[in-house]
Design brief:
The complex is a heterodimer. Chain A is mostly helical. Chain A has a single domain, classed as Cytochrome C Oxidase, Chain A, CATH 1.20.210. Helices cover about 65% and strands about 0% of the residues of chain A. Chain A contains 16 helices and two strands. By secondary structure, chain B is mainly alpha-helical. Chain B starts with a helix and ends with a helix. Classes of the chains: A mainly alpha, B mainly alpha. Chains A and B meet through α7 and α8 of A and α2 and α12 of B. The complex binds protoporphyrin IX containing FE (HEM) and copper (II) ion.
């Protein structure tokens, strides 16, 4: 064994503590000890595997779309199949991957540990959420295999009422309903945990910013998702019984469906991005070894985004038929909601300024996030302006916009977070060089895929079309090449992570030098997280955190 | 603390991996009873928020369509039997009282009273559903169905009996039979615990059929009164249906059907005239009809059908919540029969109580919005 593998005991950190032989992963054994576990860490890991698998499925559909679009006509999919493929891509990515990704997988694992508690407030409900998620997954797979869903992820009426794929619409809407409740219960659990279970010393403003972000996310989950629930329920009733509420033939109103849908789905984009922003706040300060700049502003802006996010849904419907005054109000509100996002970007840059930046894998993903999210957010502004949106609406410009924020933002932050906390979750270090390579390939591939789509969109290429005009071909081909690059980068990231399980070095308690509580317990954490209540300090005070070559990681100077 | 543990039957203290004593009713990740209670309470309030938002979608739909077609809502509301609605309102209000009383009983360790109060709440819920079953089946029989299933009220005379009520009642009947079997088992084995659980469950099952009986009696009364110059929305419906003052009888069915197919646009006018003719009190329902004669479109799928879509969705989702409430109340009865509750641990009763009040509260809105439109 090398020196690094066998740390010399430092005060307060016995060898057994650093590389524990007994931790939550081997606390109990057997399939049922996982399937019926109430341990938030195991539930988090099960979610992690689940959302990654969903991502792989959704990603396969994405590559199918891009390969189909290589030629301007006669792609390898029929028009009907093309519709099904982009619908399933969108629906799987939104409902099965991106919404649960950070809160349910990383959040579940980290929230109680960062907070210094033994578990979330309602462990059974937590497990229940997971099984609701699994049920939703099964319903989606049914929708996929029985007949293909082809309405787009938005289920707009009257498509969803008139499509031949009635069974698929029913299965998928019911799936969305169930997934919605999974999300609601996770949010509820987090709010209660943060409100009632903070240990002594953990005041609101000593909470890590990731928890603030999760808290804001949870508020949206609890307040917005029920509306989606009733909307898809009414849509199912529409399909089953023909109740007519959204059916123009029965005097119903399809625009009402859009209002209901976006009342949820706009706040839902903040369910996707807020936790990502939380991750970036952690990554920035830890890997710059410098206290976060503007803690309170970041914390408040999370809450501001959560609240303002409820007031702007109409910007998805500027062309659907609304009163002129309404569109103007929605447009103005849309501009206000970008302010808190800009505050955050400013604060992250301020954190880097004069910091000691470690350019490792998580940090590179975090930098990629800032770059991509900024482009995504800024392109939201021309979409929120009435005159330009008339032109951009339903073009590739919108597609590029939301991929920059959802994929360039949330997915990249998720990957950064997974790399950052991987040593904590699994107790293994990954190969940092290969990790960096994956981050660079993802970044290049991503821009190659989606930058051309801004150009395509502004030249008038409509979204969701299986064919296009010949003059768009070069840009489409560039995008397809980019998507394959991007796919290989993601595959590499997965390989790096999996390889670490096989031959990774054992992880120290605190490999990056973080000051939040999760770095105070062993890697992986013990079953109950903390044997005695931890001492809570400033989560961004790095002055006492020092590198100790003997343990191969950071320790707190006492 | 020790006093509490002594009085509780199933207290097993989990010493395994805790340094401090953790009574069995305190989940291992909570520090003390207060934290557990606060968490449960906050969790329930948040859940209630989601419930309100869940219903708010339907209230929005209601507001939108009522605003757009007020005459449809007036026309259709007259098909709803306010008497049944009012009775159900009363029943639910009473059940909120018993539920609140149950919380107090749990705090005071009045175990018998607690089981009784929970049982009473369960019984009220069952009566509510029984009455609802009659209302639903009655409407379905005459084609007052949601959306595209709606059958225009041209003749309104009951067609062939379709057996909706029997259909709806099968599951409650099976449940009641099972409860009865359970009760027999409980009394045969002389198990006090099982008796305490089975008793309220059986009573609730019977209450459902009590509710059905009550509902049918009142519906029949309404039916009977309509030919005798009684007033109320239902009579208007009847009058409209018949188009003249004669008693509605099944022999006329075929004739009036053909007679009115072509004339349905004037259905409501006829209703108004008919009721004047038979001396109904005009101010109750005729005046609005004269002011706002429903146009030809009202009595059709895209109009009245939409009202009934909203009616069934709102009351149906509400009924599902009642059923959900019954399931958790039954779970509470089991816990109460085990005498698990005491002044440190009554959170579940308290929280289910909150839920129950919300379900009650939503009905308080549904009743006037759907039944009491003139
Ligand atoms: C930062 C400020 C943002 C602004 C001003 C903004 C603005 C807009 C506007 C106006 C549209 C509608 C375009 C149209 O359909 O014509 C739109 C679409 C969209 N945005 Fe954003 N957005 C912002 C951030 C985000 C974020 C953070 C996400 C997700 C993480 C997101 C996800 C989406 C999605 C998914 C769509 C398209 C949905 C669809 O039609 O399928 N946006 N955005
Ligand atoms: Cu939006």
């Amino acid at each position: 064994m090398s020196v690094l593998d066998r740390p010399i005991a430092t005060p307060g950190y016995s060898e057994a503590d650093s590389y524990p032989s007994h931790h939550f992963l081997n606390h109990s054994k057997g399939f049922l000890s996982w399937a019926l576990t109430l341990d938030h860490k195991r539930i988090g890991l099960m979610y992690l595997v689940g959302v990654m698998a969903s991502f792989a499925l959704g990603g396969t559909f994405a590559l199918m779309i891009r390969i189909h679009l290589w030629n301007f006509k006669d792609g390898w999919l029929s028009n009907q199949t093309y519709n099904q493929v982009f619908t399933l891509h969108g629906a799987i990515m939104v409902f099965l991957f991106i919404i649960p990704s950070i809160p349910a997988a990383l959040g579940n694992f980290l929230l109680p540990v960062m907070l210094g508690t033994k578990d979330v407030a309602f462990p059974r409900l937590n497990l229940g959420s997971f099984y609701l998620w699994v049920t939703g997954l099964i319903l989606f797979l049914t929708a996929l295999s029985v007949t293909g869903l082809d309405t787009g992820w938005t289920f707009y009426t009257p498509y969803s009422i008139e499509t031949q794929q009635g069974g698929a619409v029913l299965a998928a809407t019911f799936g969305v309903f169930v997934l919605g409740f999974s999300s609601i219960f996770t949010g509820l659990n987090f709010i209660v945990t943060i409100n009632t279970m903070r240990p002594p010393g953990m005041s609101w403003f000593r909470m890590p910013l990731f928890l603030w972000a999760l808290y804001a996310t949870s508020i949206i989950q609890v307040l917005a998702t029920p509306v989606l629930g009733i909307t898809v329920l009414l849509l199912s009733a529409e399909r089953l019984l023909g109740i007519g509420i959204f059916d123009p033939k029965l005097n119903g109103d399809p625009v009402t469906f859009q209002h209901f849908f976006w009342f949820y789905s706009h706040p839902a984009v903040y369910i996707m991005i807020l936790p990502a922003m939380g991750i970036i706040s952690e990554l920035m300060s830890v890997h710059c070894h410098k206290g976060i700049f503007g803690y309170r502003m970041i914390a408040y802006s999370s809450i501001a985004i959560a609240l303002f996010g409820f007031l702007v849904w109409g910007h998805h419907m500027f062309t659907s038929g609304m009163a002129d005054v309404t569109t103007i109000v929605f447009s103005a509100l849309t501009f206000t909601v970008s302010i808190p996002s800009a505050i955050k970007v400013f604060n992250w840059l301020g954190t880097m300024y004069q910091g000691t930046v470690s350019l490792n894998t998580p940090m590179l993903y975090a930098l990629a996030f800032i770059f991509l999210f900024t482009i995504g957010g800024l392109t939201g502004l021309p979409l929120g302006a009435l005159s330009t949106d008339m032109h951009f609406h339903d073009t590739y410009f919108v597609v590029a916009h939301f991929h920059y924020v959802m994929m360039g933002g949330t997915l990249v932050a998720f990957l950064g977070g997974v790399f950052h906390w991987w040593p904590k979750m699994t107790g293994r270090m990954f190969n940092d060089k290969l990790g960096i390579a994956s981050a660079i390939i993802v970044f290049v591939g991503f821009n190659l895929t989606f930058l051309p789509q801004f150009v395509l969109g502004s030249r008038g290429m409509p979204r969701r079309y299986a064919t296009y005009l010949p003059e768009f071909q070069p840009l489409h081909q560039l995008s397809t090449i980019g998507s394959i690059t991007l796919g290989s980068g993601l595959l590499l990231a997965l390989i790096v992570l999996l390889m670490s399980l096989v031959n990774g070095k054992k992880a120290p308690r605190n490999p990056w030098g973080g000051a939040t509580l999760e770095w105070m317990c062993s890697s992986p954490p013990p079953h109950d997280n903390f044997s005695s209540a931890p001492t809570v300090g400033d989560p961004y005070d790095f002055s006492t955190i020092e590198y100790d070559a003997r343990v191969g990681g950071y320790v707190k100077r006492t | 603390m020790t006093a509490i543990q002594e009085t509780l039957a199933p207290v097993a203290i989990d010493h395994a991996d805790h340094h401090h004593e953790h009574p069995s009713w305190l989940a291992h990740h909570f520090d003390d009873a207060e934290q557990q209670y606060d968490s449960g309470k906050l969790g329930m309030w948040l859940f209630l928020v989601t419930e309100v938002l869940f219903f708010s979608g339907m209230f929005c739909a209601y507001a939108l369509y009522r605003n757009r077609n007020p005459e449809v809502f007036e026309f259709c509301s007259s098909f709803l039997n306010e008497k049944l609605g009012a009775i159900n309102t009363g029943v639910l209000l009473f059940s909120s009282l018993t539920m609140a009383w149950a919380v107090r009983a749990a705090q005071l360790r009045q175990h018998q009273l607690l089981v009784g109060m929970l049982g009473a709440t369960l019984g009220c819920a069952a009566i509510f559903l029984g009455v609802k079953a009659v209302e639903y089946s009655h409407k379905m029989e005459i084609g007052l169905l949601p959306g595209k299933l709606y059958v225009a009220q041209l003749d309104g005379v009951h067609g062939p009996h379709k057996g909706y009520l029997e259909f709806i009642c099968t599951i409650p009947a099976i449940c009641t039979a099972l409860c009865a079997a359970y009760a027999i088992y409980a009394f045969a084995t002389k198990s006090l615990f099982h008796q305490r659980v089975a008793g309220p469950m059986l009573v609730a099952g019977l209450c459902f059929f009590g509710g059905v009986g009550l509902g049918q009696y009142l519906e029949a009364q309404e039916e009977a009164s309509k030919g005798h110059g009684g007033h109320g929305g239902h009579q208007e419906h009847h009058a409209m249906v018949e188009g003249h003052v004669e008693h509605g009888s099944h022999e006329h069915a075929a004739a009036s059907e053909s007679a009115h197919t072509a004339e349905n646009k004037t259905a409501s006018e006829m209703a108004a005239n008919a009721s004047i003719a038979m001396g109904g009190s005009p101010d109750v329902y005729i005046a609005p009809n004269e002011l706002r004669t429903p146009n030809a479109d009202v009595n059709q799928r895209s109009m009245a059908g939409l009202f009934f879509s909203i009616y069934y969705c709102m009351t149906g989702v509400h009924a599902i919540h009642i059923i959900g409430g019954m399931i958790v109340i039954t779970w509470l009865i089991v816990k109460a029969a085990r005498q698990e509750f005491h002044e440190q641990y009554f959170g579940p009763v308290d929280n289910v109580g909150l839920y129950w009040h919300l379900v009650d509260f939503i009905w308080i809105y549904l009743f006037p919005l759907l039944y009491l439109i003139t």
